[in-house]
From TrEMBL, chain A:
Name of the protein described by the UniProt record: Phosphonate transport system permease protein
GO cellular component terms listed in the entry, alphabetical order: plasma membrane
GO molecular function: ABC-type phosphonate transporter activity
Bilayer-spanning residue ranges: 32-51, 96-118, 139-169, 249-269
RNA-binding is among the record's keywords: no
UniProtKB/TrEMBL annotation, chain B:
Molecular function via GO: ABC-type phosphonate transporter activity
Compartments it resides in: Cell membrane
SUPFAM superfamilies, per the entry: MetI-like
NCBIfam families in the record: PhnE
Transport is among the record's keywords: yes
Secretion signal span: none
CDD domains per UniProt: TM_PBP2
InterPro entries: MetI-like, MetI-like_sf, PhnE/PtxC
Protein name: Phosphonate transport system permease protein
Species of the source: Marinobacterium lutimaris
Membrane topology: Multi-pass membrane protein
First-listed, main subcellular location of the protein, grouped into a coarse class: membrane
């Protein structure tokens, strides 16, 4: 392969000398490149063929799409004010408590999932927790917790906390695995125990990233809290779902605008906090 | 560093000034009170009878889920294929839409600041609305089915791909761009030969990463009627057929693991 690639390069150079220049391709090996192109084409054909579209239904829905766009022009914040406020309050409280609980639980799991500080059995156990928590969408976990804990924000809080564990613990573990080992050695050389090493050598190195990630997760949890209400786990999602199924599009538009505004605000705040910690 | 002196002249070192100390204390106080307040709101809205029952319900659930009804897996291949299609075609749609938006949103390639803020608005609204909510809206408009799922995933991906891509564009090296424009290249040619080659690897990496996330998200779109394995999940839950639900869970788990592995390998190969 290397011979042919060199041959290709020299041909390219010859052409360039004659003033005909072509950009080198993204994938150097021509056989792999064409195989990829062919594979993509075949897949697209198969996939598009299996998508069934009911055009009559789409045409029927076009009117609703227009209604919806019109509703976005005139969002109705007031007629369901009580429901919206209740939903928002539930979402926000769920977000905060679940983030705090999730992070507190994620720290031990993250430590256990870092290969350089945890023994193998603990490592495998913690990695399994992370894999399970990350694979399943919040909404699937919410279904199970709603069955267990009943309807309401408590199930939502547990769901978000569980999802937070997977997210935070994975990133924290990666951060711990990349840390500067010299500082750990230095602290160990003073005769420090495991706890002292963690506290004095590991924690200061991962803290800025941990704070940044926590802010980011707060943001994600709010976004997710707007969804898990669909399956009965409390929050603004329940209000949104109700308004959509009642065809009260102007209320739905108002809720969506509120969600966008809050996400914008929290993103802005979290970028400030991250700049300040790093 | 704050050093105070005691009456007999020995200096005492402290880590922080007392002002900072108080501020930190105050921040903790506010934070913890807020947390307790939030907890109170949640606990007021919770039926504690149900929560106390959780252990029994949980073990009941597990006993209903096991053993999984393996025969059911044979009915799941078609929905799984749909799920993968939703994720892949949705990602393709999202990438196609995000690509121009990212160029309009990057500070160094945008034609006008006004266009830039419009592009940023598109990115933020797409990012803040979850794909399930997009799917709910689209199902009411387009009717239930795979198409609504594809478009929902596509719309949600614009924000993610767009944001990461425009950040990558803003971080490019200005030298090649200057070199290309010094040859008298037009604006489009500068983009094509100066900017594009620099962001291409990042772009490919971001796309594969988003595909991996989309596989995960597309597994639940069926809950609101947008096609894929979520439809089967919803049907099984409504029938209380928990031994089918566990088969679906295992299937989702396996698919996500494979897609994560593929995406990690591809990203490793690119970067």
């Amino acid at each position: 392969m290397s011979v042919s690639a060199e041959g290709l390069n020299s041909r390219r150079e010859d052409e360039a000398r004659r003033g005909v220049w072509r950009r080198p391709p993204l994938i150097a090996n021509p056989r792999l490149r064409w195989a990829l192109v062919a594979g993509v084409l075949v897949y697209l054909l198969l996939a598009l063929a299996s998508v069934e579209v009911n055009w009559e239904r789409v045409a029927e829905g076009a009117g609703r799409a227009l209604n919806f766009i019109a509703a976005f022009m005139q969002p109705d914040f007031l007629s369901r004010k009580g429901d919206i406020l209740n939903g928002l309050l539930e979402s926000l409280t769920m977000t905060l408590t679940s983030t705090v609980i999730g992070i507190l639980l994620a720290i031990p799991v993250g430590l256990g999932a870092a290969r350089n500080v945890a023994p193998l059995p603990v490592y495998i156990f913690c990695r399994a927790i992370i894999a399970i928590s990350r694979t399943f969408q919040e909404i699937i976990i919410a279904i199970l917790f709603v069955v267990m804990f009943g309807f309401g924000p408590f199930a939502g809080m547990i769901t978000l906390a569980f999802a937070t564990i997977g997210f935070m613990a994975k990133l924290l573990a990666e951060d711990i695995e990349d840390l500067d080992w010299k500082q750990v050695e230095a602290i160990r050389a003073t005769g420090a125990g495991w706890w002292q090493t963690m506290n004095q050598a590991v924690q200061p190195q991962v803290m800025p990233r941990l704070i940044g990630l926590s802010m980011y997760r707060l943001d994600i949890n709010f976004r997710e809290s707007s969804v898990i209400g669909i399956v009965g786990a409390g929050g603004i999602g329940a209000t949104l779902n109700t308004s959509l199924s009642r065809y009260e599009y102007s209320t739905s538009a108002a809720i969506l605008l509120i969600i966008i505004a809050i996400v914008l605000l929290s993103e802005y705040a979290s970028s400030h906090v991250r700049r300040w910690t790093q | 560093m704050p050093v105070s002196t005691t009456s007999d002249g020995t200096p005492i070192w402290q880590r922080r000034t007392s002002r900072v100390q108080w501020l930190i204390f105050l921040a903790w106080l506010v934070g913890i009170s807020l947390l307790l307040l939030c907890w109170k709101v949640i606990s007021d809205n919770t039926m504690w009878v149900f929560v106390e029952d959780a252990g029994r319900q949980g073990s009941d659930l597990i006993s209903r889920m096991t053993p999984p009804r393996w025969e059911y897996a044979s009915q799941l291949w078609q929905p799984m294929w749909d799920t993968i299609n939703i994720a892949t075609l949705g990602t393709a749609l999202g990438i196609a839409l995000a690509f121009p938006v990212a160029f309009l949103a990057a500070r160094n390639t945008t034609p006008h600041p006004l266009v830039r803020s419009l592009a940023l608005t598109i990115i933020v609204s797409s990012r803040s609305i979850n794909s399930i909510i997009w799917a709910m809206l689209l199902v009411t408009i387009l009717g239930p089915g795979v198409l609504a799922g594809i478009i929902a995933i596509g719309l949600r991906s614009i924000g993610f791909v767009g944001k990461l891509l425009y950040e990558a564009i803003e971080e490019i090296h200005p030298t090649p761009v200057e070199a290309v424009s010094a040859t008298g290249a037009s604006r489009l040619q500068v983009m094509n030969y100066g900017v594009l080659p620099q962001v291409m690897p990042a772009f490919a990496g971001i796309s594969v990463y988003r595909w991996d996330i989309n596989i995960r998200e597309s597994t639940v779109l069926g809950l609101v009627g947008a096609g894929g394995i979520g439809l089967q999940l919803n049907a099984s839950i409504n029938l209380l057929a928990w031994n089918q639900v566990s088969v679906i869970f295992l299937m989702i788990f396996a698919t996500v693991l494979v897609s994560e592995w593929v995406s990690a390998r591809v990203r490793q190969a690119i970067i």
